Amino acid sequence: MKKSVLTFALVAVLGGFGVSPLLAGDVDPAKVPEKKVTTLGLYLSAKEAYEMKKAGGDKVLLIDVRTPEETQYVGNLGDMMDANIPYQLNDISAYDAKKKVYANSLNSNFTVAVEELVGKKSMDKDGTIILTCRSGDRSAVSANLLAKAGYTKVYSVVDGFEGDMSKDGRRSVNGWKNANLPWSYGMNKDTMYYVLN
Fold first, then answer.
1. Mind listing the pLDDT tens digit for each residue in 54-112?
2. Rg of the chain, C-alpha, whole Å
3. How confident is the model over 121-157, as pLDDT tens digits?
4. Would you give the end-to-end CA distance of the chain in angstroms?
5. Where are the domains of the chain?
6. Looking at the predicted structure, is the pLDDT value of residue 17 above 60?
7. Which of 20, 44, 65, 101 is the most exposed place for a label (fewest CB within 10 A)?
């Protein structure tokens, strides 16, 4: 009881100064798989990302880095999402025979689009940004790109929108959808990413 009162007091004091303390959460950084590790070391579960965005409102950016096709056909974060800014784009003019899918190309406009969104929201590179993808791989790489560009508080959602694979090959282990957090197939035109041909 005494410990929880002290923790609450510390959070209240630090929160008053605009500092967000690092408290123990759902994600143990020491157990994050290598391909999901970021240079900043800031991780959230889908549930934590939802709570952080809900509590922070416009002071926290929630960006989906999946392709526009994924956000439309697999589902998206709905009204919680500030923007879809893909790390990669589908290249339907090329085929990846090894993976048996369309090839992907890096979105050369990624950091520019994030910078534009940050400016539009009257934030700076020290503002809180949460990145999510399908299962935490692309959000980690995207977080590293933003860290290299000078952003200091970029969180990666380690279980992403669909979550990790189960033993039977389905994405049913964790993730935004499996946590029953709000999501939608509907697209908000103000948050969609447009690819100009």
1. 999 999 999 999 999 999 999 999 999 999 999 999 888 888 899 898 888 999 999 99
2. 17
3. 999 999 999 999 999 999 999 999 999 999 999 999 9
4. 60
5. 25-197
6. no
7. 101
Phi and psi at 193, nearest 5°, equal -100, 130
* CATH architecture observed for domain 25-197: 3-Layer(aba) Sandwich (3.40)
> In 23-43, which positions are buried (b, 16+ CB within 10 angstroms) versus exposed (e)?
eeeebeeeebeeebbbebebb
Which parts of the chain are beta strand (E)? 43-44, 60-64, 83-84, 88-96, 101-106, 128-132, 153-157
Tokens of residue 5, six digits: 């009162």
Per-residue confidence (pLDDT) for residue 13, from 0 to 100: 38
Q: What is the largest CA-CA distance in the chain?
A: 62
Question: For residue 50, how far is the Cα from the chain centroid?
Answer: 10
User: Which tokens hold the place of 90?
Assistant: 């589908």
Per-residue DSSP letter, 169:
S
Q: How far apart are CA 75 and CA 178, in angstroms?
A: 12
- Look-up: residue for tokens 């039977």? 168
Tell me how far apart the alpha carbons of residues 181 and 110 are, in angstroms, rounded to a whole number: 26
Q: What is the pTM of this model?
A: 0.83
Q: Measuring CA to CA, which residue among 25, 18, 33, 76 is closest to residue 51?
A: 25
Query: Which alpha helices (H) appear in 123-171, and where do they start and end?
Result: 137-148
